[in-house]
Specification:
alpha+beta; six-stranded antiparallel sheet; 406 residues
Length: 406
């Protein structure tokens, strides 16, 4: 039989019923599977791309942040091995709550220390921590702004980098090196060598993959060397003033301020107060000074000398007895000039009077003077010349000198 004659009959007798329900369901399942696979692939590609972008971002930011710190440390001549104690060298800086100083260093011709510290993240910054910098701002040439450099009261803190980890593990400091802050979180820390010229910096950052919530971590270390005056053309660092045989002498032109911090001297135990007068001599010439307020002398030339003189009694107490003590007398034990870090004399005051520490309470830490490098404190004894006497207590008159180059 010829099959060509049968085909028309088969088509004629088979109804055109379309797709069955099973066929539709099967097609829908297959279509969903194909679309699902394609969608999963798109999501996966987006997540991989987002993860790579996030990782690249924290790597870039971390490397740039350490590069910035390293370049500024190169301007310095000393990196503080104890960042916490070194805050005393920046009296205009206030450490925020929860913050820890990590890198504190001295730059020639900059009056206070520059500080990098870590603190919990706030506001728009991604946590858990951020690194902030306190110091003079930079101008368009990449140097310190000359309008700010000598005015630390105008310095502000700025966030350098966020996403700082607080749980990253890091190696211990090399032998004979010191961790700059034992209390710091491990996301940012520093080791300083014994010469306080080299610092090893460790930084750990963290962020989340926003699609899958996967944490991304990055750690980097570098070394920085304080090479003093090369980059900014600074001159060799030297003190603004020196104390020579109790006399203050300026090493460069400056503004000098003197103020009375207090003192106590009585006519015998429990007796009436003996008045004290304070004089100031500039290049041996007496200045007019109402010692009830501070005395500021602007624009004093380099080489200018300053002597402080204290006089007890004005004829109204103790039958007119009195005593004059001056820094011009280099051999007298009745005046002591203290600089930052000097131990406070451990002397009991006469007849339960206030101690030296009482008058220096905001300038003492752990038995040592805590003032800026541009300050000096004078202690006068105006009631006794014998150091073995119970009346010899060096707190009869306490004077503070501040020398600023602006």
């Amino acid at each position: 039989m010829n099959l060509t004659h049968l085909l028309p009959l088969i088509k004629k007798n088979k109804p055109n019923t379309g797709a069955t329900l099973i066929e539709i369901l099967l097609g829908s399942v297959l279509m969903s599977f194909v679309v699902g696979i394609a969608g999963w692939g798109v999501v996966h590609l987006l997540a991989v791309d987002q993860k790579a972008s996030a990782k690249g971002k924290i790597q870039f930011n971390s490397n740039r942040a350490l590069e910035f710190i390293t370049e500024e440390v190169k301007l310095g001549r000393r990196i503080e091995s104890d960042a916490v104690a070194a805050l005393a060298e920046a009296p205009d800086f206030t450490l925020p709550d929860g913050a820890e100083p990590i890198v504190v260093f001295q730059v020639p011709d900059v009056p206070q220390r520059i500080i990098y510290y870590i603190k919990p993240a706030e506001s728009i910054w991604e946590g858990p921590h951020v690194i902030e910098r306190w110091g003079p701002s930079f101008n368009d040439d990449g140097q310190y702004d000359p309008t700010e450099i000598n005015n630390p009261k105008t310095w502000q803190s700025h966030v350098l980098i966020d996403s700082i980890d607080n749980t990253a593990n890091t190696s211990d400091c090399p032998p004979n090196w010191q961790t700059s802050n034992l209390n710091a979180t491990e996301g940012f820390n520093a080791c300083v060598n014994s010469e306080e010229k080299l610092v090893k910096l460790h930084l750990a950052t963290t962020t989340d993959n926003k699609t899958w919530g996967e944490e991304i971590n990055y750690e980097v270390e570098t070394m920085a060397f304080a090479r003093s005056n090369i980059t900014q053309g600074f001159t060799e660092d030297k003190p603004i003033f020196i104390i020579n045989n109790n006399q203050l002498m300026l090493q460069e032109s400056a503004t000098v301020k003197f103020e009375i911090l207090g003192g106590e001297i009585t006519c015998g135990a429990g007796g009436e107060d003996i008045p004290v007068t304070t004089h100031l001599y500039v290049d041996q010439t007496q200045q007019n000074w109402d010692s009830n307020s501070s005395l500021t002398l602007p624009n004093q030339a380099a080489g200018t000398t300053f002597d402080v003189e204290s006089i007890s009694g004005d004829g109204s107490a103790c039958d007119g007895t009195g005593m004059t003590v001056s820094t011009t007398d280099m051999n007298t034990p009745q005046v002591v000039v203290l600089l930052n870090g000097d131990p406070v004399p451990n002397i009991l005051p006469f007849a339960n009077q206030n101690t030296i520490d009482f008058f220096l309470q905001q300038y003492v830490e752990n038995g040592k003077v805590k003032i800026a490098d541009n300050e000096a404190i004078y202690l006068f004894e105006l009631g006794a010349t014998n150091q073995e006497s119970s009346a010899f207590d060096l707190q009869d008159n306490v004077v503070l000198a501040t020398v600023d180059t602006y």
